[in-house]
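Case study.
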Amino acid sequence: MAQEIERKFLVTGEFKSQAFAQDRIIQGYICSAQGRTVRVRIRDNRGYLTIKGASNVSGTSRYEWEHELSLAEAEELMKLCEPGVIDKTRYLVRCGKHVFEVDEFYGDNDGLIVAEVELASEDETFDKPSFIAEEVTGDRRYYNSQLMKKPYKTW
Amino acid sequence: MAQEIERKFLVTGEFKSQAFAQDRIIQGYICSAQGRTVRVRIRDNRGYLTIKGASNVSGTSRYEWEHELSLAEAEELMKLCEPGVIDKTRYLVRCGKHVFEVDEFYGDNDGLIVAEVELASEDETFDKPSFIAEEVTGDRRYYNSQLMKKPYKTW
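After joint prediction, the assembly is written out as follows.
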């Protein structure tokens, strides 16, 4: 169990030409309650079970516990998930000393692109890539667990 | 992920003298929704994360996935659980070819004692020990995830 410190931004500029890796991600939620989410993810034929706690006041920091699953386990656990699934491609883009994870969503969240950067501490500085725009850290509408229930296309 | 096949009975007779082992169990639920529960358990200084799916119609059979946790992980994940905790002692009692798990509850479920037997198939026969009474297999009120929300003392 570790503390996850992240900041999240909307993406408006071109980023794909700068990406050094990309993966398709499918994920569902066994639990999407506020303050405790249980996520099942399939990424590049591997499964992951991730449990996240409540955010701090700024929305920057959150407890996270993760365990790798076999693909078969992940597929079984995916069947237990709440209705709705998140389908996206994650691009990795380096900027200065940090790697930005840029998620391009499909399906009911088509049109939404967000970038996240993980930090070692809440006050760590980082270079902002040209493709990012408004910060949405802590805005629960952009949590994947919320995008599943209230997809971007319905906003 | 395996199919768990169990039958559950109320306990009215004396069983402790027949027990060959006992453990104190503390457990909470990150998710207690119908058809998908995520349980954190501490038993004998070990932690377990268990995800269960929906029961079949008879209530006998249910998908179950379990992963062992360190005590520290279990204690952290316990903090994310819904309010309320199940506190009980589990006694193991052999009867014929089977081992019955007899749970004596404390706190808000004080007075409740239930016995469960795990079967290899739904139609497997088993010897009934003298201490068991009415069968409550499939009765959701006796699910631990429900006993947390509507404890026995409030019935």
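Observations recorded in class. Residues 71-78 of chain B form the longest helix (8 residues). Chain B touches chain A at residues 1, 30-31, 33, 35-36, 38, 49, 51, 53-54, 63, 65, 67, 72-73, 76-77, 79-82 (CB under 8 Å). We will return to this complex in the next lecture.
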